Amino acid sequence: MKLWNPIAFFISLIMSIVMPLIFATPMGMPLDICFLMWPIRWVVAYFIVNLIVHPLSLKLAGKLFDYKLGMKTGLWNPLAFFISLMMSFIMPLIFGVPNGQLSADVLFYMWPVRWVVAYFIVSQIVNPVSFKLAVKILGFNPMK
User: Fold this and answer.
1) pLDDT (tens digit, 9 = 90+) per residue, 62-74?
2) For position 104, what pLDDT does the model report?
3) What percent of the chain has pLDDT over 90?
4) Helix residue spans in the chain (DSSP H)
5) How far apart are CA 90 and CA 53, in angstroms?
6) CB 91 within 8 A of CB 22
7) DSSP letters of 58-71?
8) Among residues 44, 34, 35, 144, which one has the least CA distance to residue 91?
9) Cβ-based burial of 30 (10 A; exposed 0-12, middle 13-18, buried ≥19)
10) Residue 11 has pLDDT above 90, yes or no
11) Under a CB-based contact definition with an 8 Å cutoff, are residues 87 and 53 in contact?
12) DSSP code, position 126
């Protein structure tokens, strides 16, 4: 397990602001708080994904869907499927429930909606953009 993951760096950066803008601000989170909390959400998301969610998702995708890292995916991406499943629950649980912004029942019944939205945003837009940014900005070499 590597602590540094340039693609996850950009995915967590983008998704830690996109998802709260889509889901939290319409439910009453002030826009200034949304942006002020962004760096904290980004760091938390980055470490949770790198240390727990990505390795677990890779194992689940491999066992259940015979997925191997680096496989070409189109609309269906088993790795993004599991990562978005877990993160669409974990992040609102960490940042929404404790401060009273999100009730437990809303956490659970909005989970499928957050999951589907996160899956399609990550698999179709954010992952390809993050890969290109990692190569261009951070000099990431996928062949290493």
Assistant:
1) 999 999 887 788 8
2) 93
3) 86
4) 6-19, 31-36, 38-48, 54-65, 78-95, 104-109, 111-121, 127-138
5) 10
6) no
7) HHHHHHHH---TT-
8) 44
9) exposed
10) yes
11) yes
12) I
Q: What Cα–Cα distance (Å) separates residue 79 from each residue in 30, 119, 141?
A: 32, 10, 20
Predicted confidence (pLDDT) at residue 144 exceeds the cutoff of 90: no
pLDDT tens digits for range 118-134: 999 999 999 999 999 99
Report the candidate in 89, 85, 91, 77 with the shortest Cα–Cα distance to residue 124. 77
Structure tokens at 18: 């996109």
Q: Which two tokens stand for residue 71?
A: 């496989």
Percentage of residues of the chain with pLDDT beyond 70: 99
d(CA 91, CA 118): 12
The angle, 0 to 180 degrees and rounded to 10, between the axes of the packed helices 54-65 and 78-95 is: 140
Length in residues, the chain:
144
Query: Tokens 């949304």 — which residue?
Result: 34
